[in-house]
Design goal:
By secondary structure, the chain is of the alpha+beta class. It is built from 13 helices and 12 strands. α4 crosses α5 and α9 runs antiparallel to α10.
C-alpha cells in the first residue's frame, strides 16, 4: 500500500490501475487531457483530469506503487504502511527533513550546489527553529533518497539500527551543576563565552568533588560536550538573559512583507468564523443557532476552494471536512443542487496550508492526514 493514493492531481509517470489494466500517465495535451499508455500492449487512452479523478472517487482507478521505489523502500527496511502508526517523535523528524527538501523544490534547485544548499538550510532552520541544522552533504542525501522513493515521506523515518547513542549522557548531578554555573555567568549581562563557562564549570566540579568519595567524583566533560550542552539552551532564554526581553523578542519573532505566491494551490489559508445570523427551521420556526463557517481560500487566486458549515465549535473534524472538499472535484454539485447555475472547478492538492494557532489546528490526526497527502501545515506566529 503506497502513501500516494490520490489521483485528483495526476503526476507524469504515475502508474494507475484502470479496469484491471495498468497504465502510465503521460504529459498533458494542449486541451488538458492526459495520455494513458497501457504498460503491456502500448495502447493509449485520452482522458480528462476530471474524468480520471471521478473514476478514482468511484473506485474504478487506483494508484500503483512504482516498482523501483518499492524496491528502494524495501532495502531501507521501511515496513510501516503509512506514517499514521509512527511515533510522534518520528513524525516530527519526517516533517523537519521534508521542510528542507521542499524548500529546494520551491526554489528550483535541481543540481547539487553547496552555496545554494547552505542558503536554503539557513533560511529553513530560521523558519522552523531548527537548532541541529544539517550540512549541505546531508541535505543532498535527503533529496536523493526522496527522489529514489518517488516522494514517499517514509524514507525520512529514523533508521535507529544504524544510529549510535547521541543523547546527553551527563549524570544528573553534572546537569544540575552546569545549570547553576550557566545562570551565574553564561546567562547574565556579563556575556561569558563558552570557554569561560568551561573554566567555571571545571572549578565548580572541583569544589563539589571535595566533599565526595573518589569513587563518586563528578568527571569533567570534554569541551565539545560542553559546547553541545550550550546549544541545547533555548535561544530566546539565552538572548533575554544576556540583553533584554525586548531585544530577544525582536530577534526571534517573524515579521516582514507578505508572502508572494507564483501559482495556484501553492498556499491556501484556512480559518473559522461565527456567522452573524441565526438559522431558523422553516417548518417549526425553532431557532437552530448560529452556524460556524470554515473556509479554505487559495492565496494566489483568492478563490474559495471549499467551505464547511456546522453548528459545532471549531474542531479538527471541521478542518478535515473543509480540506477534503477543497481537494476533491465537485463535478456532481449541480446534480445535488439543480438551482446552481455555474460549475465549481476549484479542486486539487495544496502544497501549504496556513492557519492560526487554534487548538483544532494543533491536532495529531490533522498532521497525519496532511503528511499522507504531502501537505505542509504551518501555524501563523503568535
Amino acid at each position: 500500500m503506497s502513501f500516494n493514493l490520490n489521483l485528483t492531481n495526476p503526476v507524469v509517470g504515475q502508474q494507475v490501475q484502470l479496469h484491471a489494466q495498468q497504465y502510465s500517465i503521460g504529459l498533458p495535451l494542449p486541451d488538458g487531457r492526459f495520455s494513458l499508455t497501457n504498460v503491456k500492449n502500448g495502447t493509449t487512452l485520452l482522458m480528462a483530469r476530471q474524468e480520471l479523478a471521478q473514476k478514482y472517487l468511484d473506485g474504478f482507478a487506483e494508484h500503483v506503487a512504482d516498482p523501483v521505489a518499492a524496491t528502494f523502500l524495501t532495502q531501507r527496511k521501511l515496513n510501516l504502511l503509512d506514517l499514521t502508526i509512527a511515533s510522534e517523535e518520528d513524525k516530527k523528524t519526517v516533517r523537519r527533513k521534508q521542510a528542507y527538501v521542499d524548500a529546494l523544490d520551491n526554489l528550483g534547485v535541481k543540481t547539487y550546489q553547496p552555496s545554494r544548499f547552505t542558503q536554503v538550510i539557513e533560511a529553513v532552520a530560521a523558519e522552523i527553529g531548527d537548532v541541529r541544522k544539517p550540512t549541505h552533504w546531508t541535505l543532498q542525501r535527503w533529496r536523493r533518497d526522496w527522489e529514489r522513493s518517488q516522494g514517499d515521506p517514509r524514507v525520512f523515518l529514523p533508521q535507529r539500527a544504524r544510529r549510535g547513542n547521541r543523547q546527553l549522557r551527563w549524570p544528573q548531578e553534572l546537569v544540575q551543576l552546569a545549570g547553576q554555573v550557566a545562570k551565574e555567568g553564561l546567562l547574565t549581562k556579563q556575556k561569558h563565552t563558552v570557554t569561560k563557562f568551561c573554566r567555571d564549570l571545571e572549578t565548580a566540579i572541583a569544589d563539589a568533588n571535595k566533599f565526595r568519595e573518589p569513587a563518586h567524583h563528578i568527571k569533567m566533560p570534554s569541551e565539545g560536550s560542553v559546547r553541545r550542552y550550550c546549544l541545547r539552551i533555548d535561544p530566546f532564554k539565552f538572548l533575554s538573559s544576556r540583553s533584554t526581553w525586548r531585544a530577544a523578542d525582536r530577534t526571534q519573532k517573524q515579521y516582514g512583507r507578505g508572502v508572494k505566491t507564483s501559482r495556484i494551490l501553492e498556499r491556501v489559508e484556512i480559518d473559522h468564523t461565527l456567522l452573524d445570523l441565526f438559522v431558523v427551521d422553516s417548518r417549526s420556526g425553532i431557532i437552530l443557532g448560529r452556524p460556524w463557517l470554515t473556509i479554505v481560500i487559495d492565496a494566489h487566486s483568492r478563490a474559495i476552494l471549499s467551505f464547511y458549515l456546522s453548528f459545532g465549535p471549531p474542531s479538527w473534524v471541521a478542518v478535515m471536512e473543509a480540506m477534503k472538499r477543497a481537494i476533491l472535484p465537485k463535478g456532481d454539485l449541480r446534480k445535488v443542487y439543480p438551482e446552481i447555475q455555474h460549475t465549481w472547478d476549484c479542486h486539487g492538492l495544496m502544497e501549504l496550508a496556513i492557519s492560526d494557532n487554534g487548538k483544532e489546528f494543533v491536532s495529531a490526526n490533522l498532521d497525519d492526514g496532511a503528511d499522507a497527502l504531502r501537505i505542509r501545515i504551518q501555524l501563523c506566529p503568535t
